[in-house]
Amino acid sequence: MATDKILDETQEIMVQDLHLVVAETVWPPYQTGKFIASKIMPQYKAAIKNKIVLDVGTGSGLIALKAGKLGAKKVFATDLNAKAVLAAQENWERNSLPPDKLDTFVSDALANLPDELEGKINLIISNPPVQPMLEINSNGKERDSAYDWNEAEKGGRAVLDSVIIDGLRFLFPGDMIITSTSTRHGWNQTQELLNSLTREGKIQSWKEIHRETHQLAPFYDKYIPLWLEMQAKDGDTRIWKNGKGWSHDFIVLELINC
Question: What's the CATH number where 59 sits?
Answer without folding.
Answer: 3.40.50.150
